Amino acid sequence: MINGHALDGADLGARPEQGLQAAPGIAIKVRDLVVGFGDKLVMQGLDLDVYRGEVLGFVGGSGTGKSVLTRTILGLIRKRSGTIEIFGSDLDSLSPREYAAIERRIGVMFQQGALFSGLTVKQNVQVPMREHLHLSPRLSEELAMLKIELAGLDLDAANKYPAELSGGMTKRAALARALALDPELVFLDEPTSGLDPIGAAEFDELIATLQRTLGLTVFMVTHDLDSLYSICDRIAALADGKVVVEGPISAMLDSRHPWVHAYFHGKRARLVDTAFAKRSGASGEAAETSPGENANGFSE
Predict the structure, then answer these.
(1) Which residues of 4-23 are buried (b: 16+ CB within 10 A; e: fewer)?
(2) Residue 42's domain is classified under what CATH number?
(3) Residue 55 domain-assigned?
(4) The model's pTM
């Protein structure tokens, strides 16, 4: 839901420059946002922009409010003050009809999938279609199967129940449902959490491919350093109730904020940075070889 109105998926459970040029403008604009629970303030005057066509990685320490911000933007948590705009519309000023139009342009994938346990994968994907579209049973099934395939699941997974799925399959099923209404903006909450390194890398590649192919804007809450390096156009770091740094990975590496510096310069971060640099270097060397030669300079 957005500010109390039902939202599909919420109640249900060289790229960077090309993406930004293809879809200029701001998809999400948050200004002076204040969110709290009782006497505790989680967001204290937070500002954030998410540009159309980009993959934004949103990071922060445990308990700092990453998921709280996502749920506040979606209207699942009430803000105390501030403004939230999606696609240029102030959510506080929209009529129910206008809310519904915004809702159909958004897809959400929660960390644990939030699939209905009593429905099959296909039926889960069909739920937002039944809520918002007037489709024949046959067309609804065809579209659901298309989304399932688009999310990288084998078609025989369509008739399985959530309890029969592995962790990776659950995330892909949740992604298929998030894509059910062909959204422009997709929220992903810890999409690679709980996956092994191979599964996480494959899911990252899937997100990147879908973003390029469908022109999606992706707001991704994550703590996965590999994801931040490999598929995020920009990163926003949350600390002390505000976004303290935002920009490309280089801005994170240059930041002197204590938490940001510790996160991006810790032992694990250095390993990821080294691996990423080696991959980038190998790609650059391959690109510089002349036709008919391989990366080692030998004729093929």
Answers:
(1) ebbbbbbbbbeeeeebbeeb
(2) 3.40.50.300
(3) yes
(4) 0.80
